[in-house]
Design a protein that fits this description.
By secondary structure, the protein is mainly beta. It has three helices and 18 strands. The protein starts with a helix and ends with a strand.
């Protein structure tokens, strides 16, 4: 036999199919115990050292299928160099044509997806609970928890931002201002120098309510609803005697109560 051929006798070159039977590596460097039927038979398992890309640490779970090589063809020096999926076992995120997705899918269901589809590029980090962070082709960001509360940070439309809670409450921030709205439709709109409050009932609960300059335009005082209503009722009900006599017992005109229509808790500057 030629010497060049003789030195390769008993060597195992190329890749061989294997499966993981243990990954609890005592050295914690990513070694796994594998069976390689084509080399060791169906039952013998050996420890194989990893071949990771720089900066990566991904150890396949028990039961995963792996490719195994041997350093210098020496069967005493096995190396696992990658994994492969059985038919119909690839992650659902990869089921696209052409395969423009680059997907990291852990056994626990966590996913990192890089989608290079032309015009629809995106990056998604998704927790097994379905909470996720997504960045689209425009650079807009969407963040959501597992219950559906969502925050959207748009890179288009003036850079609007919106927070939508799982309970239906909404906060929107735009170039024009801020809008808060609850699930019942009550809203607070701050646009420019104007504040608009929309609700079935509005309550100002404070010891003092201060109104700024211009609140009493034209010198008109602030009306205190309850006191004004009482004064108005008295005005409507009072009568005057006539030549024919009063039709009802006369009611004296309501006395003028100083500043009855002003609340002492309302300050007009």
């Amino acid at each position: 036999m030629h010497p060049d051929l003789a030195r390769h006798t008993g060597r195992y070159y190329g890749k061989y199919r294997g499966s993981v039977v243990d990954n609890a590596d005592a050295t914690m460097v990513g070694a796994i115990m594998v069976t390689v039927p084509a080399v060791f038979g169906a039952t013998l398992a050996v420890w194989a050292h990893p071949c990771f890309p720089s900066g990566h640490f991904f150890v396949p779970p028990i039961g995963a299928f792996v490719w195994v090589e041997f350093e210098g063809g020496d069967r005493q020096l096995p190396i696992w160099v990658g994994t492969f999926y059985p038919t119909n076992a690839a992650p659902p995120e990869s089921q696209v044509k052409p395969p423009d997705n680059r997907v990291v899918h852990t056994p626990g269901g966590h996913v990192v997806e890089f989608d290079d589809t032309d015009g629809a590029e995106r990056v998604v980090i998704r927790h097994a609970s379905n909470a996720f962070v997504a960045i689209d082709q425009a650079g807009s960001i969407t963040i959501a928890n597992k219950n559906g509360t969502t925050m959207s940070l748009s890179a288009a439309d003036g850079g609007n931002a919106m927070l939508l809670s799982e309970h239906g409450q909404i906060m929107t921030l735009t170039d024009a201002g801020i809008v808060l709205m609850n699930k019942d439709g009550a809203a607070l709109d701050l646009t420019g120098d104007t504040v608009r409050i929309t609700a079935k009932q509005i309550i100002l609960d404070g010891t003092t309510v201060a109104l700024g300059n211009g609140a009493a335009a034209g010198g008109q005082p602030t009306v205190m609803g309850t006191a004004f209503q009482a004064l108005w009722t008295q005005f409507l009900m009072h009568t005057h005697p006539t030549a024919m006599g009063p039709t009802l017992p006369p009611v004296p005109p309501a006395p003028l109560v100083p500043a009855v229509h002003l609340s002492g808790a309302v300050l007009v500057k």
